[in-house]
UniProtKB/TrEMBL annotation:
It comes from Euplotes crassus. It is found in: Cytoplasm. Mg(2+) binds at E18, D46. Homodimer. This is Inosine triphosphate pyrophosphatase. One of its GO terms (cellular component) is cytoplasm. GO terms for biological process: deoxyribonucleoside triphosphate catabolic process; nucleotide metabolic process. Keywords: Cytoplasm, Hydrolase, Magnesium, Manganese, Metal-binding, Nucleotide metabolism, Nucleotide-binding. It catalyses: ITP + H2O = IMP + diphosphate + H(+); dITP + H2O = dIMP + diphosphate + H(+); XTP + H2O = XMP + diphosphate + H(+); N(6)-hydroxy-dATP + H2O = N(6)-hydroxy-dAMP + diphosphate + H(+).
Length: 166
């Protein structure tokens, strides 16, 4: 850096949260951080869209990819590969208090990335075709999507946990 500017630089060793890593690591950090802000238990969720041709990326970074590339761009990412398979994943993390370890509930739905089809109102729904279905998430009615989605699978596990904890 000193080569390219007139500023002087010093190295400071600071431990800052970066929110990078696996979906599990990221949602765990989120839950722990949230738990420092209240005395009540917290629940956070994070969604990933993972392309197998990219070893699981964009994964938790899908929000920025979607924002910059749009659904058409997401399809273009896989169109040059033989492998168009992907999975949608939702993780709810429940953290009792700031000193306890978050409990994770992973809901996953396998499918593939297709050219965008259907209603464009929610996220990457137009490019995700779940296995066993002819319609993308965006083409399905809400009830059908809810009955099979990554989120509903995560919520089902969370519900079961909370009921047994009661
Ligand atoms: O992670 P933070 O920064 O809190 O942001 P967020 O809460 O908006 O983001 P999520 O992790 O919930 O979701 C990541 C991206 O996936 C999109 N998304 C979430 N659930 C989805 C679903 O069921 N179908 C389609 N897109 C979805 C959402 O719009 C984001 O662009
Ligand atoms: Mg997220």
């Amino acid at each position: 850096m000193e080569d390219v500017t007139n500023f002087e630089f010093d190295n400071l060793k600071l431990d800052l949260d970066e929110y990078q890593g696996t979906p599990e690591e990221i949602v765990t950090k989120k839950a722990k951080l949230a738990a420092t802000h209240t005395d009540n238990p917290v629940l956070v969720e994070d969604v990933s869209l993972c392309f197998n041709a990219y070893k699981g990326l964009p994964g938790p970074y899908i929000k920025d990819f979607l924002k910059q590339l749009g659904t058409e761009g997401l399809y273009k990412m896989v169109s040059g590969f033989d492998d168009h398979t992907a999975y949608a994943q939702c993780i709810f993390a429940y953290c009792e208090n700031k000193d306890s370890e978050p409990v994770l509930f992973v809901g996953k739905n396998e499918g593939k990335i297709v050219e965008p089809r259907g209603d464009t109102s929610f996220g990457w729904d137009p490019v995700f075709l779940p296995d066993g279905y002819e319609q993308t998430y965006a083409e399905m009615d809400k009830a059908t999507k809810n009955s099979i989605s990554h989120r509903s699978r995560s919520v089902a596990k969370l519900k079961e946990y909370l009921q047994t904890e009661e």
